[in-house]
């Protein structure tokens, strides 16, 4: 999964990116990319049993764009548009650290709306441009890009005209593959991350959770956990000794770091779960969309495994854990044979049997 950061200049994007990347240092201009580990104690436990040559956690890709010179905002530069349109999720850093708390609700809504509106305007131009071309193609007696394209584009134009994003149209979701070439910005879900000041951190969680974001975000984007952090305080945390961090965080009423919150919220919003492959060579965690079938899990590993999918040997992580080892799980018949209709569950330990190739382990 790829997540792109955006927000007003000075909202704290680069500070958050530095935290995610875990490196620091002066950012060079241009696109920055970090592959951030998804912390998962289950991977560590599996690694202890299999003692593999390699342990590979799941990762999420984060991107930040450091632009040269003065930046226009919300007018998005072509580079920023490109970055955002290719992301699975847009992480919008909302600046609240310089805003008095009584103005947070209004200010948060404004910052989200200004990005969402910019997305609508740019997408409308994309749709209208494509419609014009498609109409010419059809007039010339040729086929459009895909069946139903002109109708879908008309529908999208009407939707955008009403101020609603591409992602509010279910048919667009279905046609997502064909539509990808257009890289609609409003097709990307928005996940806000609220950057608050040190003094407000104590009350920030309750205040931010109370902000009504209906109307500026899609209905399914307003629920779920909200990322509330102080980039300043997070940096202070990094400066103190590791064994003193918990006490320091407690003093601020923090239970989770900005990085942990961001990864968890991203997983939740993108509807991701993890499954595992195990063996002597490698223990590995993979991200998958919730509700995916066994062949799609195979496809996440390798497209050949999906093509040649025969069946999957599956044991739930909790069953493996209670059995105590993989052999014990097998003896207790907790390892199941599943076919192509099996829906992968979070924490499944999976071994794909394929006619074309065999998965590791
Ligand atoms: N006081 C305070 N200042 C912040 C915070 N986050 C960002 N800033 C200020 O904003 C400046 C720019 O932050 P940066 O992460 O580069 O913003 P970007 O333009 O969104 O990438 C920083 O140098 C800080 O002075 C914060 O949490 N508290
Ligand atoms: Mg920056």
TrEMBL record:
The lineage of its organism: Bacteria, Candidatus Eiseniibacteriota. Gene3D superfamilies: 3.10.20.30, P-loop containing nucleotide triphosphate hydrolases, TGS-like domain. Keywords: ATP-binding, Nucleotide-binding. This is DUF933 domain-containing protein. CDD domains: TGS_YchF_OLA1. Pfam families: YchF-GTPase_C. One of its GO terms (cellular component) is cytoplasm. SUPFAM superfamilies: P-loop containing nucleoside triphosphate hydrolases, TGS-like. Residues 271-354 form the TGS domain. It comes from the Bacteria. The keyword ATP-binding applies. It comes from Eiseniibacteriota bacterium.
């Amino acid at each position: 999964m790829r997540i792109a950061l955006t927000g007003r200049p000075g909202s704290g994007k680069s500070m958050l990116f530095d935290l995610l990347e875990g490196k620091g240092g002066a950012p060079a201009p241009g696109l920055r990319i970090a592959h951030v580990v998804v912390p998962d104690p289950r991977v560590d436990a599996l690694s202890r049993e299999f003692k593999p040559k390699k342990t590979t956690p799941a990762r999420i890709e984060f991107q930040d764009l450091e632009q040269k010179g003065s930046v226009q905002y919300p007018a998005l530069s072509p580079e920023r548009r490109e970055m955002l349109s290719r992301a699975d999720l847009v992480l919008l850093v909302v600046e609240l650290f310089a805003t008095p708390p009584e103005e947070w609700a209004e200010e948060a809504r404004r910052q989200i709306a200004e990005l969402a509106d910019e997305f609508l305007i740019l997408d409308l131009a994309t749709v209208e441009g494509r419609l014009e071309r498609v109409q010419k193609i059809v007039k010339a007696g040729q086929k459009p890009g895909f069946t139903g394209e002109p109708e879908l584009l008309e529908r999208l134009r009407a939707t955008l005209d009403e101020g609603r994003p591409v992602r509010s149209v279910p048919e667009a979701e279905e046609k997502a593959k064909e539509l990808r070439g257009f890289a609609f910005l409003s097709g990307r879900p928005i996940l806000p991350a609220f950057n608050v000041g040190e003094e407000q951190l104590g009350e920030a969680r309750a205040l931010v959770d109370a902000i009504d974001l209906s109307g500026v975000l899609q209905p399914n984007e307003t629920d779920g956990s909200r990322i509330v952090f102080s980039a300043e305080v997070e940096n202070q945390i990094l400066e103190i000794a590791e064994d003193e961090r918990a006490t320091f965080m407690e003093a601020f009423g923090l239970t989770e770091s900005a990085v942990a919150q961001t990864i968890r919220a991203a997983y939740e919003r993108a509807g991701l779960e993890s499954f595992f492959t195990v063996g002597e060579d490698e223990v590995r965690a993979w991200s998958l969309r919730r509700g995916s079938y066994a062949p799609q899990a195979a496809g996440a590993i390798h497209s050949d495994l999906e093509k040649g999918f025969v069946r999957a040997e599956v044991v739930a992580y909790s069953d493996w854990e209670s059995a105590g080892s993989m052999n014990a799980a097998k003896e207790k018949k907790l390892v199941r044979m599943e076919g192509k209709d099996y829906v992968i569950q979070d924490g499944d330990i999976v071994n794909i049997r394929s006619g074309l190739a065999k998965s590791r382990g």
